[in-house]
Design a protein that fits this description.
Radius of gyration of chain B: 23 Å
Shape of chain A: elongated
Largest interface: A-B, 69 and 78 residues
Radius of gyration of chain A: 20 Å
Helix content of chain A: 10-25%
Order of helices and strands of chain A: HEEEEEEEEEE
Helix content of chain B: over 70%
Strand content of chain B: under 5%
CATH class of chain B: Mainly Alpha
Largest sheet of chain A: 5 strands, mixed
Structural class of chain A: alpha+beta
Oligomer: heterodimer
CATH superfamily of chain B: Cytochrome c oxidase-like, subunit I domain
């Protein structure tokens, strides 16, 4: 099976680009810690309210400039809502769902994670720019899905 | 010598074969369902864009997510599957033939799929299945919805079994010969479809049906999503490969050229079989509970599937250039001029090819591991698949319809209908550019997909999205005009166009083409490699998912209004 010379060149260059982009992607994911959120802890989805830390959702300062938001997602709201953090803070969101699958997205950032019943999800973001950011559910969760939003205020 | 050759060719061996009236009825039945789906699904799409732009509110308690479910199921599952199976049967009938018995079993596949489709449609129309076409657990639809979907899949398998049998019978009769290219491609596509849809069939039969009937109290959500996406990505290749069949083996004939390379066409289909399936995690990149290393491995495998598409792109433009130069059009781009721009059988698929350039590039972005976070579940993704399936694939299917329908109904594509087809293609292109473009931009700004109109508490970010939603409604309205035009053309071609013989264009190889190596027909090897790749990509992470499973989830039906 002989290939046309031009096709060989075309394929060698494009496969080269593909390999290069895979190397870059892999390097970013594993050496620079930029892999997509894949936290592996689990929880009984019917006992979220009784299980730490979700028995006490809220915003907690863990150390200087670092915060943890322990959050439950449920039809059609986020708990806590109306979060406030100082500018420059590194915020880790620790989340689970009390019912169906939800999405957790902060518009205008790269924060984008699925939050599923039975699983604990974690995602970290540093908020440099002050302002009000929209948090919304981006996975269909029922008739009021479009109402499921809140904000995070960076001051 | 010449005489002897003629004697050997019996009636049913003159290629391409003639399609009988009874066969035509079978193939057209699939296409009728596809065209009805286009109207229903398209109307639902129009309504969605109007609701989301806050132009209308739905009357009579109809829910946005109800019409969204109908739109997705009817277009992504029903229209595509029926058109593809009808088209593939026609290709098989034309290249390897169909026996009476095979035709009867093919009708069985049609009716099983119809029963399933009607069952699913009724539950959606009654508002009992507003779970969207991905039906993610633990949102629970009426059990009949899942049973209906299972029947559609089983019906499509029966069609696949018939296709394989058709090729098998042909090969028995023609020992040592290479199979007709189009029949080879159909067999590959159905093999991929069968292996992939086993995943969703297991999810539906083992998980969803018992759970929705109340026999199982809880469902393993991550397992169900993993099984769905094991099927969900090859599903898009199941849509794309029939378009590629037309590009490789039909378009060259329409432009007056030859197949660029029979072997490379077959090789690219084999690569699609290998790499379409072990890649489902790239739809689950932001999910908890899946090991990040295995996500990355499947991302790498996803990138392998780009290679056969690049080969296809090369073949297409090589065919165009060679054909043009042979006709005496020189210069760097002179050959472009010769292309039959005024022939809708060429123009519609050609625009489909062009749309696959941004469509494919967008797909690479979606699958690119961390870059996925920018667009995951935003309306960018919706924009992406409206370029790929709703432009590349559908325009190619329209392009096929212009000759396939009159060929089957014994009519002619008249110059007037050809001109109307060109207008339809332009309308579609304009509408989709506006709608899909607006979706891409809004997605980059963070606007979510699958959402009714919302001001999200009046935040400034969300207020910037509304203009794009209006643009989507404008694009959607133009597209609906395109659907009405297509429906008119379809009715004309099926029932009213003048009687005649419309060509079923099948391209031939060059006289001096390199012989296709026989190893390309080594089916056992290809299936074995496919299964090995699937086992490699899925065994360890899937065992990991099951071993670390949390307690399951009970069903939720009240969030969808039940």
């Amino acid at each position: 099976m002989k290939m046309h010379r031009a096709e060989e060149i075309w394929l060698v260059i494009s496969v080269g680009v593909l390999i290069l982009s895979m190397v870059v992607t892999g390097y970013q994911a594993f050496a620079m810690d930029m892999a997509p959120p894949s936290h592996k802890e689990t929880i009984d989805p019917q006992k979220v309210d009784q299980t730490a830390p979700f028995d006490n959702p809220g915003v907690f300062q863990t150390e200087e400039g670092k915060y943890e938001v322990v959050m439950t997602l449920q039809i059609f709201s986020f708990t806590p809502n109306k979060i406030e953090v100082p500018a420059g803070s590194e915020v880790t969101f620790t989340m689970t769902s009390k019912d169906v699958v939800h999405g957790f997205q902060i518009a205008g950032t790269n924060v984008n994670a699925m939050v599923m019943p039975g699983h604990i999800q974690k995602i970290t973001q540093t908020f440099e720019e002050p302002g009000e950011y929209l948090i919304l559910c981006n996975e269909y969760c029922g008739a009021g899905h479009q109402m499921m939003s809140t904000t995070i205020t960076v001051k | 010598m010449g005489l002897e050759k003629i004697k050997k060719v019996s009636n049913n061996e003159i290629l391409p074969l003639t399609i009988s009236k009874q066969e035509s009825r079978l193939y057209m039945s699939f296409i009728y369902v596809a065209i009805i789906s286009l109207l229903i699904g398209g109307l639902m799409g129009l309504l969605q864009t109007l609701v989301r732009s806050n132009t209308i509110t739905l009357p009579w308690g109809i829910g946005y997510y109800q019409i969204l479910t109908l739109h997705g199921v009817v277009l992504a599952l029903v229209l595509t599957t029926y058109f593809i199976i009808g088209f593939q049967f026609a290709l098989m009938g034309k290249t390897v033939g169909i026996s009476l018995k095979q035709r009867k079993v093919a009708w069985l596949s049609f009716w099983v799929m119809i029963v399933g489709t009607v069952m699913a449609a009724i539950t959606i129309l009654m508002g009992k299945a507003s779970v969207l076409y991905t039906f993610y657990a633990p949102l629970k639809a009426h059990p009949v919805f899942y049973i209906g979907l299972a029947l559609v899949i089983v019906g499509s398998w029966i069609a696949g079994f018939v296709n394989w049998h058709q090729l098998f019978v042909w090969k028995k009769k023609h020992p040592g010969e290479k199979s007709p290219l189009l029949a080879f491609m159909v067999a590959i596509n159905m093999a991929m479809w069968f292996i992939a849809s086993l995943g969703v069939a297991v999810a539906v039969l083992v998980q969803f049906i018992p759970w929705s009937l109340g026999y199982a109290e809880t469902i393993n959500v991550l397992v169900s999503r993993t099984l769905f996406w094991y099927f969900g990505h090859p599903l898009v290749y199941f849509w794309l490969l029939p378009a590629y069949m037309a590009w490789y083996a039909i378009i060259p004939k329409i432009i007056g050229g030859k197949i660029f390379s029979d072997s490379l066409a077959r090789l690219s289909f084999i690569l699609f079989l290998f790499f379409s399936i072990p890649v489902g995690f790239h739809h689950q990149l932001t999910e908890p509970g899946i090991d990040p290393v295995w996500k990355f491995i499947q991302v790498v495998l996803t990138f392998m599937v780009i290679i056969p598409s690049l080969m296809t792109a090369f073949s297409m433009f090589a065919t165009f250039e060679i054909t043009g130069r042979r006709k005496g059009f020189g210069g760097l781009f002179g050959w472009l001029k010769h292309l039959p721009w005024k022939d809708v059988r060429f123009l519609a698929p050609f625009i489909g090819m062009l749309a696959f350039i941004p469509g494919g590039a967008g797909g690479i972005i979606n699958a690119s591991h961390q870059m996925n976070a920018v667009v995951h579940n935003t309306i960018w993704v919706t924009g992406h698949f409206h370029l790929t399936v709703a432009t590349t694939v559908i325009l190619t299917f329209f392009g096929i319809s212009y000759w396939l329908i009159p060929h089957l109904t014994g009519r002619k594509l008249t110059p007037q209908l050809n001109r109307l087809g060109i207008i339809q293609t332009i309308v579609w292109t304009v509408g989709m550019t506006i709608m899909s473009g607006a979706m891409h931009i809004q997605g980059l700004l963070g606007g979510p997909r699958r959402s009714a109109f919302s001001e999200y508490g009046g935040t400034e970010q969300a207020s910037n999205w509304i203009g794009y939603q209006v643009a989507q409604a404008i694009g959607g309205s133009i597209l609906f005009i395109g659907i009405i035009l297509m429906l008119y053309i379809f009715i004309k071609l099926a029932f009213f166009a003048p009687k005649g013989i419309e060509e079923f264009p099948i391209a031939e190889e060059e006289e001096d083409a390199e012989p296709t190596p026989m190893f390309l027909e080594n089916w056992k090897l290809w299936i074995a490699i496919t299964l090995a790749l699937i086992l490699f990509a899925y065994t360890i992470p899937f065992v990991d998912i099951i071993q670390n499973s949390p307690p399951g989830s009970p069903p939720f039906s009240w969030p969808i209004g039940n």
